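Hey, does this match?
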Amino acid sequence: MPELPEMETYRKMLGERIVGRTISDAEVNRDKTINVPAAQFVAELKGNSVTRVERRAKHLIFRLKSGSSLLLHLMLGGWMYLGDDNDNPDRTKQVILSFGEMKLYFIGLRLGFLHLHDEQSLNVELDDLGPEPLDPAFTIGKFKELFSGRKGMIKTTLVNQKVIAGIGNCYSDEICHEAGIKPVRTFAELEPPELNSMYHAMKTVFLRAIEAGGYMDQPLFKDDMKTGGYDKQCRVYDREGEACIRCGNLIIKEIVSSRKTFYCPDCQH
C-alpha cells in the first residue's frame, strides 16, 4: 500500500504535469470508486481544472478551480498512470481523467476511492488523522508528548493513522531499524534517548525514501525512472533471511497484529 513517501512522490510529479490544465473529459467505469452519481461526477469535472495537488497522510487532494476537491486513497493495490490512448497499462481503469490527449488513469481501486468533496466535507473526512511526520511544527517535543507512555506496541501504534499520519507496514519497520529499536516493543518501555532516536529516524527515513521515489515499483508515466527507487534501499522491509546491512545478522519476519513485521533481532534492541 502506498505510504507517505509514495504519495509525496505522486504529488510532486503530478503537480508538475497536470496543474493548470483543463479536464476535457472524465470517465467512470466503476461507480463504487466514487461517492456521487457518475453523471454528477463527470459534470463537475468536465471543463474544470486542477489548481494544485496536495497530500495529507496517505491521501492525495486534487484542488479544483471550482472550489471542490478530489480526494484519492489508493489503498491496497491501487496505482495511477499518466499516458494516452496509445500508452497505458492493459488493466481495468476505474476512473480516467482526460487533459486533452494526456490522460490520468486510476487503476486497481477495488479498495481505494476517488471522492468528490466540497471544503466542509473534505475537512470532515480528514479530521481524525494524526499529525504529519514531516511538518516543521511537529517538533521532537510534540513527538515525545504524543508517544510517551503509550501502552501499545511500537509497530501497531506507528501505523495507526489517528495517532500519526502516513506511516504503514514498510516505513514503520524501516524507522525502527534506523532507530535500532525492535518494533515489537511498546512505546511505554522506551527511555527518552530512544524516543529521540525514533523521532530522528522517522525524519531520516522519510526524507531518504522521498528522495529515492518511494518503494512502489509501478512507474507513473513512460520513462519514469524515479518512482520505486527506494525499493532497493529498504533496510529490513520484505528482506527476511537477508543480511542486515548494519550488523550482518539475518533479518527475521514476525506477524504482529496480522501485519508482516521485519527487523534485525541482533542490532535492534
Summary: Helices lie at 4-18, 38-45, 119-126, 140-147, 154-158, 169-179, 192-212.
